[in-house]
Amino acid sequence: MTMKKALLSGAAALAMVTAAHTAQAADAVGNASATIVAPIAVTQATALSFGNMSPTTAAGSVVISTAGARTATNVDLLTGGTTTAAAFNVTGDNSATFAITLPTSTTLTGPGPAMAVSSFNHDEGGTPALDGSGSAAFNIGATLAVDTSANQTAGAYSGTYNVTVNYN
């Protein structure tokens, strides 16, 4: 075989191998998407209020249930004043589930020793969800600790606490 024929045969074989590899390539189109949901928001509609009370000679507590019922231990409950569970409204993406995070405690301050508020709880259940309009409401109850030995100074006490909602 001549050199010229050998070179042509080699070039033809290389072209076929290259063509065979090119024939093995494939392309695909990928899809991408994104969904923007309405921001979730929470607002207080009604403040948590333990009402009027008078301490006794022992440590006491006042409990406000999520339904607004008030009970006490070693505290005389007095009429007058406002007694309410806290009420909150949530808005966001229609039918989305969300989580509620409540504080473990806070304090009410006033003219005497600060009073601890603890045992925060809500009535929205284990998996709260926004309705088809993107809204929900829930109530919060808690327990107020009143100073021992009737040392709680008379006067108004107040404080704040954080309620957080997040999409699941």
How would you sum up this structure, described in words?
The chain starts with a helix and ends with a strand. The protein has one helix at 3-23, and strands at 41-46, 49-50, 53-55, 60-64, 70-73, 75-77, 83-84, 86-91, 98-101, 105-108, 115-122, 135-146, 164-167. Strand 4 and strand 5 (70-73) form a beta hairpin. The mean pLDDT is 88. By secondary structure, it is mainly β. Strands 1, 4, 5, 8, 10, 11 and 12 form a seven-stranded antiparallel β-sheet that branches. A two-stranded antiparallel sheet has the order 2-7. The protein has one domain (41-167).
Question: Main traits of this protein?
Answer:
seven-stranded antiparallel β-sheet, 1 helix, elongated, mainly beta, two-stranded antiparallel sheet, 168 residues
Task: Please summarize what this structure is.
The protein has 168 residues and is mainly beta.
How much helicity do the residues have?
A: 10-25%
Quote the beta fraction. Answer: 35-45%
| General shape | elongated
**Rg:** 34 Å
The major sheet is characterized as: 7 strands, antiparallel
- Arithmetic mean pLDDT: 88
Count of runs of 4 or more consecutive helical residues: 1
The chain-level structural class is mainly beta
What is the terminal-to-terminal distance?
A: 77 Å
